[in-house]
User: Which sequence fits this backbone?
């Protein structure tokens, strides 16, 4: 008897794409509420990049050669694209830890027993992380302006280009949260997800053009740095911000950084989303 | 026509361990099956296979008339699952948790909201509705978890050790909720390692051990298999033992066993309470004063022992520590290695 009313209560499966979007939004909302109730997570997420801005600016600034200049101002303007890009990739850890936590607490089991879109739990999480990343970027940009970072320091630029640069940063951050999603689905505890989500990020973000001029690296290392997907976004931001220290290398990603950044991010999303959702489907806590 | 929950030859191996070794089940609509067994017997794996969380290596399962392997998403619309560990988001309020689950069952936001209010009232959580689940007691979390499983009043419910780790008061409370649910016509599969719980809630019991169903039947049938009932008498005076023995011998079948030092006499009987009354009358007539007399039925513990040759082991650390998740890892590892 109750089966009839229930059948009415549950809406028929609509278009799978709109169901997927709707479910992802429900999960994203849930994660955003969660984040707003753990403000210390957001604050800790901000302290580190702000510390990097301050330390790199005042400690390294003046001792670094950027495009033949050792001016502290040039280094400051060079540095910010790198710090922004590094910061967005660190969302990987929060995404991975969140998903591992859901696994650990049995929530993934609950979600998997519900008639919801298969990718929505992970998509919802990555979208919520994207919102958090955007907030972090805003705060970080303000801090960067306060310590003296200026767009257009090395030529002309405009608002559209600056916004485009932030768009590429967000896309890179979003792509990396899918790597985090796969890590979160693969490890057993949130702690493991946090550390395994961060360890490999250090070489990825340091063997790059983020903090130093790659032309001073040994050739093989320079080669890696110039083809590093991360470097493409950093280079693209420097070009769009018109900041100094743009690589003059002939490597394709350095010559076409905006395209390279878009392609790399899209590739990462496609590959890691596929792997993470596959893992979700067959998840056994 | 198979029942609301039907499984045939379910096999699931993890590595070279056979967690399920051919499980067959048939639960008629509107009844409760208690899946009883110790840790690692394969209870949770069975539930995970039936609720689409795990693909069996072989075998067939039909839930609410739908093939679990062929139509998993349709099955998910018809079931509610309440797992071993209250799976609620502790940073959301009770209301937000239920609304989210409702929406993910594809209810409209408004309907999900109304249903959440209904359930909060039903589970006595209205006062705590707008507090985060983090502040809830263990019993409240379980109730919220159960409420989440009931959002669409699914015709088929699965509960994996619903009361493990709860104190007696909360267990009683949850039992009442479950009974109410079943009286409304829901088909329920419930796993438990508490023999008393299966006895209390289930119409039928399937005893599982090492990935197989080793016995099934009603609680009474299983008890009958272990041997019938017996009458135990403790007499007040030691010199009354011979007379009492004579009386019991006349009513019972087989020999009367006597423990001299405790003044306890035991005899197997058939005839239940009526016979007990007659025995009491006769002892009274003969002037024998009794400290205690009773009809003893075998417990499910006895059943388990006689079926498996070992006691249903209950590891205290796993029963006590259910709210903390590491226990789950331990347990599942165990389930896999057994």
Assistant:
């Amino acid at each position: 008897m109750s089966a009839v009313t229930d059948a009415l209560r549950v809406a028929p499966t609509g278009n799978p794409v709109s169901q997927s979007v709707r479910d992802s939004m429900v999960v994203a909302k849930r994660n955003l509420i969660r984040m707003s109730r753990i403000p210390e997570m957001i604050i800790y997420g901000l302290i580190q990049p702000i510390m990097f801005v301050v330390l790199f600016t005042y400690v390294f600034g003046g001792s670094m050669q950027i495009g033949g200049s050792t001016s502290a101002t040039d280094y400051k303007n060079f540095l910010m694209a790198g710090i922004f890009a590094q910061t967005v990739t660190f969302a990987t850890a929060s995404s991975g830890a969140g998903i591992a936590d859901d696994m650990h607490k049995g929530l993934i089991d609950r979600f998997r027993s519900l008639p919801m879109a298969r990718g929505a739990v992970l998509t919802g999480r990555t979208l919520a992380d994207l919102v958090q990343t955007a907030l972090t970027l805003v705060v970080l940009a303000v801090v960067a302006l306060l310590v003296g970072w200026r767009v257009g320091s090395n030529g002309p630029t405009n608002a559209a280009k600056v916004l485009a640069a932030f768009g590429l940063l967000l896309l890179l951050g979003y792509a990396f949260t899918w790597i985090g999603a796969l890590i979160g689905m693969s490890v057993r505890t949130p702690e493991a997800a946090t550390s395994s989500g961060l360890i490999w990020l250090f070489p990825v973000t340091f063997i790059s053009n983020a903090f130093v001029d790659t032309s001073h690296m040994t050739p093989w290392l320079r080669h890696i740095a110039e083809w590093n997907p991360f470097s493409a976004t950093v280079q693209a931001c420097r070009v769009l911000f018109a900041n100094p220290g743009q690589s003059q290398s002939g490597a394709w990603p350095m010559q076409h950084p905006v395209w390279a950044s878009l392609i790399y991010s899209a590739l990462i999303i496609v590959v890691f989303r596929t792997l993470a959702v596959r893992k979700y489907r067959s998840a056994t806590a | 026509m198979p029942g609301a929950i039907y499984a045939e030859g379910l096999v699931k191996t993890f590595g070279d361990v056979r967690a399920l070794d051919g499980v067959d089940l048939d639960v008629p609509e509107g009844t409760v099956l208690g899946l009883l067994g110790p840790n690692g017997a394969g209870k949770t794996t069975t539930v995970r296979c039936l609720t689409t969380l795990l693909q069996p290596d072989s075998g067939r399962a039909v839930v609410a008339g739908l093939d679990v392997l062929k139509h998993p998403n349709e099955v998910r619309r018809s079931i509610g699952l309440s797992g071993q560990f209250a799976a609620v988001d502790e940073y959301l309020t009770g209301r937000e948790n239920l609304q989210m689950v409702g929406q993910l069952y594809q209810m409209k936001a408004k309907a999900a909201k109304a249903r959440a209010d209904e359930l909060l009232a039903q589970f006595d959580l209205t006062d705590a509705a707008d507090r985060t689940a983090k502040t809830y007691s263990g019993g409240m979390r379980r109730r919220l978890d159960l409420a989440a499983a009931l959002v669409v009043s699914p015709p088929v419910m699965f509960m994996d050790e619903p009361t493990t780790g709860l104190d007696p008061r909360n267990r009683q409370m949850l039992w009442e909720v479950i009974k109410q649910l079943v009286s409304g016509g829901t088909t329920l599969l419930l796993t438990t390692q508490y023999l008393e719980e299966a006895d209390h809630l289930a119409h039928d019991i399937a005893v599982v051990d090492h990935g197989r169903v080793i016995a099934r039947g009603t609680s009474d049938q299983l008890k009958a298999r272990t041997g019938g009932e017996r009458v135990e008498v403790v007499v007040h005076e030691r010199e009354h033992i011979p007379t009492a023995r004579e009386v019991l011998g006349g009513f019972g079948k087989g020999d009367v066993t006597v423990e001299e030092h405790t003044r306890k006499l035991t005899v197997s009987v058939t005839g239940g309470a009526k016979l007990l009354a007659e025995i009491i009358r006769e002892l009274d007539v003969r002037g024998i004063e009794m400290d205690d007399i009773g009809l003893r039925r075998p417990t499910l513990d006895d059943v388990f022992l006689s079926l498996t040759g070992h006691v249903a082991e209950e590891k205290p650390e796993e029963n006590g520590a259910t709210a903390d998740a590491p226990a789950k890892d331990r347990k599942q590892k165990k389930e896999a290695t057994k």
Observations:
- Confidence is low (pLDDT under 50) at residues 314-338 of chain B.
